[in-house]
Structures
1.
Amino acid sequence: MYPQKFEDLITAFRHLPGVGVKTAERYAFTALEWDEETLNEFIHALSSIQGGLKNCTICGNLSEGDHCQICADKTRNPHVICVVQSAKDVIAMEKMNTYNGVYHVLHGAINTSKGILPQDLNIESLLDRVDEQTEEIILATNPTVEGETTALYLSKLLEDKQVNVTRIAHGLPMGGHLDYADELTLIKAFEGRKKM
């Protein structure tokens, strides 16, 4: 029905989560209306993430260099580590403007039905980071079955490390995700975290 190049553009937009055929068509028609400068900005932004973004070698967060901005910030407390499932969870936590520790990004959660096992996550480097100076590990995985399973697994692994392991409180709804929560909900959940 459409020319092949336009069909290819629709197909490309359909790769985005939650985007069906109609929305992808709308995006494609919008892209056709862009001036050359806007189109070039979009193309440049997309092409620059390939090779331009990587995972921080310390925490696994998104980074343009070896270390993310948070790990490179000398004013943060490196002895308090907040463990999250994804890089977008780091952004959600940072919106609180109350946490001054560092993060560790797991890149997922244990989900045996999808074949995601502990060895598929960024767990080994977390264990390597924990030493006698580590004051607290805050488990801030999503309050879902997978997030709870992952938090429980990590708390068991960390039992021998002589570190205070806490879990954020359930001010967040079960089945919810950190990146959808507002700042106040996150603050309350963070303040009400408990020892595991």
Note: Strands lie at 54-55, 62-63, 77-84, 101-105, 136-139, 164-167, 194-195.
2.
Amino acid sequence: MHTQWWLATLGRTVIWARLRVREAGTAEVFDSDGNTLTYDSEDSARAALMDAEFVALDGLDADDARTRGFLLDELAPPQADDDERLRAQMVSKLPSHH
């Protein structure tokens, strides 16, 4: 299973989404509300994320990050042993720059 992290930003708040592509070619998105949404393909999952103004973390460069008001180094996808614990970390607030 292939995992990609996507994010949307609102000021200094980062909203994460986890996209997983299964071997069968179907995809699932674990969202910040703790829902797992199933899609028939990776393309349709990516399209849904883009419609919601999410961007792929691995597609971001330093300029993209700066445009959004943060540094690339500040972004680390949430990590947890299970989805229940992960859900609590799917929205994070970055420290303010002074």
Note: The mean pLDDT is 93.
